[in-house]
Amino acid sequence: MQSGSCSADTVPVLRVRAAAARRRVLRAARHQGRAPDRRGHRGVSHSAQGYPDTPGIWTREQVEAWKPVVDAVHAKGGVFFCQIWHTGRASNYQFQPNGQAPVSSTDRPIAPKRSEDGLSVTTYPAPRRLAAEEIPAIVDDFRVAARNAMEAGFDGVEIHAAHGYLLDQFLKDGVNDRANDAYGGSLANRCRLALEVVAAVAGEVGAGRVGVRLSPYTEHMDATDSDPDALGGNMARELGRLGVLYLHAVEPRMVRPYERGETRHSLRPMRDAFGGTFVVAGGYTREDGDRAVAGGYADLVAFGRVFLANPDLPRRFQLGAPLNEYDRKTFYTADPVVGYTDYPFLDDLPK
Ligand SMILES: Cc1cc2nc3c(=O)[nH]c(=O)nc-3n(C[C@H](O)[C@H](O)[C@H](O)COP(=O)(O)O)c2cc1C
């Protein structure tokens, strides 16, 4: 789903458009006793899963199933990073091994959430608070997933530390209520798990193949923080020290991931603190993406929904061509498969 603003001949993609190859991954996922897949992120372990239709990258079979998908993207000249995640408490019993409670930094659940279409409500169980002794195994799951991604042929991995999932559940003081161990309390302690994961993954595959996604300002899945400027700044500085390839930050205006609001905050301090390649995302158009890059606010702009709806987005940007509009109703739908691979290319449109 990511692209450099307006220019890229090679398009970094997180979204797979090779439907036939995807079906093989889905079959592998079903074989693991889990639901099939529709999203960009790949779970790092069996306990990482939290949604129907999400893929994984922790078994041999999954790695093999990814290979033709990755090959298909490379054959089109794409650069392909695999986003790896653990949903933590944004999960439910049916996604967990043996129907156990999901794990988190806390034992407090996410409040019930209404679906995009407003027609249903998802409730979340109380998670099990991870003991500090269990954390090295979580770090190791990310490391192994990154190794697997390399084996599957991906060009790199993006560590998902955003949007209220496990790493964000440790980062933010509105969720992380641990008082007495190395992973809670102070800002440094809350950042520890995410930074340990990044260091382990960078040690495994090389920092030059690692990106990190952060959303200190986004309150998705009840992941709030009392001082997101300090959180974002600290993470950015530490990631700069670790020398990762890029930092991908979600705009402060995206308090909810899919709604653009107004904010007094800016990503500029995070960019300055990081010092490396800085990717911004959230509510961008071609015009303000260009402005962000020209003004030195970002190196790259990631597009989500407009890329989903426009498979040839870079070309349309180059030509100044009109865009297909995205259809919210088809976000995250699994059956029938609509809204991911069937938006028309420019050349398909009636002249
Ligand atoms: C259908 C759909 C799937 C998404 N999948 C992911 C994902 O796998 N990982 C992620 O970090 N964000 C995901 N997002 C969020 C987008 O990356 C992005 O942050 C959000 O859409 C806001 O950017 P935009 O205004 O350019 O769409 C997804 C969004 C949509 C609509």
UniProtKB/TrEMBL annotation:
GO process terms (BP): fatty acid biosynthetic process; oxylipin biosynthetic process
Name under which the protein is recorded: NADH:flavin oxidoreductase/NADH oxidase N-terminal domain-containing protein
Alphabetized UniProt keyword annotations: Fatty acid biosynthesis, Fatty acid metabolism, Flavoprotein, FMN, Lipid biosynthesis, Lipid metabolism, NADP, Oxylipin biosynthesis
Membership in a protein family: Belongs to the NADH:flavin oxidoreductase/NADH oxidase family.
Cofactor: FMN
Biased composition (Basic residues): 26-44
Record-linked Pfam families: Oxidored_FMN
